[in-house]
Amino acid sequence: MTDKLKVIDLFSGCGGFSYGFETAGFHVVLGVDNDKASLETFKANHKNSKTLLADLHNDSTIDDILNEIKGHKIDVIIAGPPCQGFSLTGSRNKSDDRNKLFYSVFKLAEKVKPRAIIIENVPGLATLYNGFAKDAILEEFKKLNFTENFKVLFAPDYEVPQIRKRIFFVGLNSKLGKFEFPKEVLSPENYNTTSIAISDLPTLENNLGEEKSKYDKPAKTEYQKKMRNGSKELFNHVSTKHTDHVIEVISQVPDGGNHKDLPKGVGDSRKFNEAWTRYNSKKPSKTIDTGHRNHFHYKFNRIPTVRENARLQSFPDTFVFVGTRTQQNKQVGNAVPPLLGYHVAKKLSTYLTKKL
Predict the structure, then answer these.
(1) pLDDT in tens, 216-231
(2) Between the CA of residue 324 and those of 31, 40, 201, what are the distances in Å?
């Protein structure tokens, strides 16, 4: 492991970004987050990494990180700071302290002197508040004498069966040149769809399932085979018990439909944009969020399980989520899709393995 490029993951959550980097051949030395349940999942799935439960609002956390990584020369810092202040669904309060958490990335960089930094967030970060966060990030790269580049990546282009856009800022030591983002892997006509992603999983029509269960049919697609990742058991595939009324309403929504397709007077308790939305079996899923209460399986009259949404985020079945169901859903929704992280990491490795 000593010859692998080494990474620190700030605001790591459960470790989706880290998993993508590990799959690309990096060694994640440390995951840092302030959510205990997320770090428990991180720890369960990154056996060779340390974790640190800490609040990056506090400058003392930088010293704690330095203590944890003693003996390691860090090549890369990756970070996905909380995005609520920049998200279209957030309060969009400019004074929200979370909007400035990205500065902790650069405070750490001044100490560990990595050769690359990647910051991931929602696309709104680039334009909201007249682009102050974007401009500040680029300015911090310049202070480190890093080249900088940023781009909004569309997850389906990189094998992820989910409509998800995220902005990536990549800074490189100026000797390494300017980062060019990886080319798209799939075109729209070949995107992985929800049925391509999850149609092999047990239907749960006659039972709610269990936290650990068995597959009841073989993988049908290349994506499903990739996601099974050699797993002999199925984890986190547990359904939710809905009321008869909710089931009756869901049953009237067609594949890919939403509340607009319901008869007049049906489902009136939810009439906002995403209400009563069925995933479309022939398209990537809607963006996975942390609540999972408004989107439904493309075929069955229930919300997706944690495992189904994890598949749509490109987590392999060997990646096990721990904590309560609510915590698991939050971990899945907040994560960087591992396959998206993988493609960025593979491209980054071509720069970091250059001889200067």
Answers:
(1) 999 999 999 999 999 9
(2) 21, 12, 21
